[in-house]
Amino acid sequence: MTKEGRRPSWLMLWLLVASMAAPSAVAQPPRAELILPTAEPIAVPMPESPIPLAELEAIALNRSPELRQAGHVVEVASGRAVQAGLYPNPEVSIEGSQLGSPQAPGGMVKAPVFRQEIVIGDKLGAGRQAAQCETSKARALFTAKRYEVLTAVRKGYFDTLAAQHRVEVLAELARLSGETQRTTETLVKGGQAAPLDLVQIRVEKGRFEADLEAARQQCTAAWRRLAAVIGSPELTERPVAGSLDTPWPSYEFDQVVRQLGELHPEVRASHAELSKAQWEMKRAAAEVVPNITLGAGYERDNFAKEDCWTLQASMPLPIFNRNQGNRQAAAAEVHRAGAEIDSVRNSLVAKAATAFGQYDAARRRAIRYRDTILPDADQAYRLALAAFQGGQFEYLRVLQAQRAVAESRLEYLRALHELWSAACDIAGLTLEDHWSPGG
How much is the average pLDDT of 50-79? Predict the structure, then answer.
């Protein structure tokens, strides 16, 4: 049978499929919306209402064990800073000798005798300043940890959101392929369609259903990861609110790099480490001058029947040990801490470069899919339908065009997912607090 002879039966197949997919298909050729979730998206059934990004961030900031740990580190450093500035306590003693002597009952008694170590130089001040620098470093690292948590929550949110969108697209494709299969089965029974067409449609339907099942599992896994990140792994699975196809943030690489070098908490922490090293070097230099211990007390000499006062003063002689080893180590630590600042800056710039590269590549790919590939795939699908309606080729070509639209849509979602994931990294580096696009 020639194509011309088969044209009425193929036309009937087309009309029946199109009539179920779009009520106005006779007046207007069906468009690619037939396989996209934009017309009648099938939502994944969830027990609760969608949760926005801002709420997820609030939960994480309140319940994250990592933030609690970082907060306790600040408390530890603050306590050590208090302790480092305290003056040594005085000592009091009672001494007695020859207490049982028959010549002088009671012997010799020194009671009480007070001793006090006098700190010479700025040892206490330098130690206190070094400890306060450690506190400043702990606070800066707490801030860094806070934005690490926010970044993890945001990336988990977009992982879950992308998985949801993928489920919606594949669910719509599976539904439409099921309708096409039922229509084709009817036509095959009536001798108006070839069995090969039905086999091809069943293969396509099975492929969409397998992908849908995998996407649902991935969506559940993404939610569980997100729940663990926010510190609430017991949360029941629920959808996240938002859309990937929202206005994208705009960043300038040079501006971000300047901000990193000035404001990022890891840079501040490295500066605090340098200041601590400098104060410890001063403390090591001050240790060369030894402290003096002074003492005074009352003494009763029962042999001579005398009461008298005793005075004491002592100090170590810095002959062999002038703290030279610690001074050398402290000086080297200053140089190491200074180099650490440049190392941290370079590491942050490298992270920014990686995030910007991923962001720009995903943004360009998303723009191309949105502006060129998706419209072209949609047009190819409509042209294939029109050619099939005219009997120019078989329905297999229509299925191929339909598959191209589906794959283009899924690749567009993938590009948007990668774009927002990279944007999360940039937002974390630039310390963006109220950052809730898509939510």
Answer: 94
Structure tokens given for 188: 């095959």
Give dist(CA 238, CA 223) in Å, integer. Answer: 8
- DSSP structure string for 333-357: HHHHHHHHHHHHHHHHHHHHHHHHH
User: Does a structural domain hold residue 361?
Assistant: yes
430 in Cβ contact with 262 (< 8 Å): no
Tokens of 138: 């702990």
The domain in which residue 148 lies consists of: 3-22+29-429
Confidence at 5, pLDDT banded by 50, 70, 90: very low
CA–CA separation, 153 vs 150, rounded Å? 5
What is the band of 403 on the pLDDT scale with cuts at 50, 70, 90? confident
d(CA 395, CA 7): 11
Q: Which residue has the higher pLDDT, 102 or 244?
A: 244
User: Contact, 403 vs 204, CB < 8 A?
Assistant: yes
In a domain, 437, yes or no: no
Q: Where does 190-238 have alpha helices with state H?
A: 195-229
**CATH code of residue 245:** 1.20.1600.10
